[in-house]
Amino acid sequence: MEYQKGQSRQQITLFTTCLDDMVPYDNTVRFIDQFVESLDLETMGFDSLATQGRPPYNPSDLLKLYIYGYMNRMRSSRVLEKECHRNLEVIWLMKNLKPDHNTISRFRKTNSKAIRNVFRRSVEIAKNFNLIGGELIAGDSTKLRAQNSKKNNYNHKKVQRHLEYIDKKLQEHNQALSKADGDEKQDLENQINHRKEQRKKYKRIETELNKNTSSENPQLSSSDPDSRHQIVRGVITEVCYTAQTTVDAKHKLFIDYKITNENDKKAMGTMLKRAKSILRTNQFTALYDKGYHTGSEFHIADQLGIKTLVAIPAIGRSSQAPNPDYNSENFLYNDISDTYTCPQGHTLTSNQTSYKARNYTFKQYKTSACKTCPAREQCTTAKSNGKIIQRSEFTENIKNNANRVANNEQLYKKRQALVEHPFGTIKRQWGFDHIITKKGLRSASADFGLIALAYNLKRLINIMATHKDHKNRFFEMLYHAFRTIFRYLEGFYNYKQLQYKNA
Predict the structure, then answer these.
(1) How far apart are CA 181 and CA 205, in angstroms?
(2) Helix (H, G, I), strand (E, B), or coil: what is residue 135?
(3) What is the pLDDT of residues 236-253, one digit of tens each?
(4) Is the pLDDT of residue 491 over 80?
(5) pLDDT for the residue numbered 23
(6) φ, ψ dihedrals at 345, nearest 5°
(7) Given phi > 0 = left and psi -120 to 50 = alpha, else beta, which region is 258?
(8) Same domain, yes or no: 263 and 198
(9) Residue-averaged pLDDT of the chain
(10) 17 contact partners, CB below 8 Å, separation of at least 6
């Protein structure tokens, strides 16, 4: 049987075309090139990376390489180094430059703030093309595993468990040593010395944990110090970071992100302030899940004048009445007399003393009628004082949210479809379910910033391509839009600097 024959590897070939002709005009790599060339990287805060004995690489070239890599599911600096040698698109983009993996890695590590500024430029571009609605946003977080195993994450309980185990083993070794001789004795002495070194290690960790007084349950991660052991889903836990994000409803584009190592309880207020600054308005509705249901955060939202809809978590078993009809939400509050009326018609009053909880203050309401009330067993399990209702300083803000959710059920149902869309793309389709960098929040923020930037740019290309007959025209329009916007921003920045100097 005859087969098609390949060309001889020793055959000399003369290419009759230039490198530029090998990359189609509508290739995404040209969009990346135009996007980065339109940026003023110096004002964004990029640092030039000098290497010993030769000039540094231009930050624009390394940024192009990273954007291309993240858009094509490549984050590793070693993989990107290989692509510079074998990938025609990368060779075109880098103009045949071949930086080593250390240079590539340092660029991402040292430019976290500048990468955030580039991401914000992608949001400005989307706004310029009217792709950001600014009327409905959704916020949520996702957990991204850190480069730190559970084994190398410590808290007081874990350290104490290790110390108890070591002390027990030392006791066993010392008892065995008193009866041993020869080689067995030497082996036991080595084991005792090893256990003592382990004990010193855990004592050092215990000392470090004792220094951290800012947290109720301090942790220490030895590989990635800012990562924390958190609940990911149900009873599943990981040492990870939390990526707080805000997504616009019109085309499911990111408008903001923030990497933290905390849970969602105190995150909504900060993200809403940032969303107001980005959108330059407070006339939008924000959707969040029940993890953000915190009175102080509702208070911030109401102060900002932002309409929020946050799912209401179920009442804990310890807070429920034996009969749900007698739960505290069924007691009517009178703001004029500052009293509550129970379903039996009794009035609960306060002694006007404000009690302090960790993050808020509250007052207590009770009545002596509980002692003789026929419904007492249905209302409370308390044996002495009867029913006590707590009203925090943020109760009114919480009730306002509950009313908004009840009146906008269909609108709230859109939340999951909006904010989970980017997470599905990033974690499921691209496989970016972990932070690839080490050594702190800054590096983790740079990594996720490039993920969010790549997601937005891909969405921009796909959205615009569906509305245009030719991608070529889109690239030309986009390039001119970049130039117009950034010249305006640069002029505005210079004007403000001049005003500051003359002040």
Answers:
(1) 35
(2) coil
(3) 889 999 999 999 999 999
(4) no
(5) 85
(6) 95, 5
(7) beta
(8) no
(9) 86
(10) none
- Determine the pLDDT at residue 469: 46
Query: Residue 25 contacts by C-beta under 8 Å, 6 or more apart in sequence?
Result: 472, 475
Average pLDDT of span 119-131? 90
Minimal CA–CA distance to 220: which of 239, 233, 195, 238? Answer: 239
CATH of the domain at 280: 3.30.420.10
Does a structural domain hold residue 12?
Answer: no
> What's the pLDDT at 270?
94
Residue 465's pLDDT is: 73
Q: What span, in angstroms and rounded, lies between the C-alpha atoms of 39 and 111? A: 15
Q: Do residues 276 and 378 both lie within one domain?
A: no
CA distance 202 to 65: 43
3-state helix, strand, coil in the chain (%, to 5): 50, 15, 30
Backbone Cα Rg of the chain? 30
Neighbours of 14 (CB within 10 A): 4
Cα angle 101, 106, 108 (rounded to 5 degrees) comes to 100
C-alpha span between 348 and 342 (Å, rounded): 7
Question: Which residues in 88-211 belong to E strands, given as ranges?
Answer: 136-145, 153-154
For residue 372, which phi and psi values (nearest 5 degrees)? Answer: -115, 5
Kind and range of the H or E run holding 306 = none
Residue 451 lies in a domain: no
Please indicate, yes or no, whether residues 285 and 416 belong to a single structural domain of this protein.
yes
Q: Is the separation of the CB atoms in 394 and 296 below 8 Å? A: yes
Mean pLDDT of 309-317: 83
- How is residue 353 annotated by DSSP? P
In terms of Cβ atoms closer than 10 Å to its own Cβ (0-12, 13-18, 19+), residue 499 is exposed
DSSP labels for 229-270?
EEEEETTEEEEEEEEEEEEETTTTEEEEEEEESS-STTTHHH
- Same domain? For 305 and 331 the reply is no
Angle, vertex CA 121, rays to CA 118 and CA 124, nearest 5? 165
The pLDDT score that the predictor gives to residue 480 is: 57
Please give the average per-residue pLDDT across 101-125, as a whole number. 92
Looking at residue 52, what is its pLDDT?
59
Could you tell me the residue range of the domain that residue 295 belongs to?
136-146+233-313+402-429
- Kindly compute the dihedral angle of the four CA atoms of residues 252, 258, 260, 264, in this order, to the nearest 10 degrees: -50
Q: What is the pLDDT of residues 71-95, one digit of tens each?
A: 999 999 999 999 999 999 999 999 9
| Residues 466, 278: Cα–Cα separation, whole Å | 27
Mean pLDDT over 178-198 rounds to 84
Asked if residue 197 and residue 174 are part of one domain, the reply reads yes
| Choice between 350 and 472, residue whose per-residue pLDDT is larger | 350
Rounded to whole angstroms, the Cα distance separating 145 from 230 reads 10
Q: Is the pLDDT of residue 497 over 80?
A: no
- Same domain? For 167 and 87 the reply is no
| 7 occurs within a structural domain | no
Average pLDDT on 30-46 reads 89
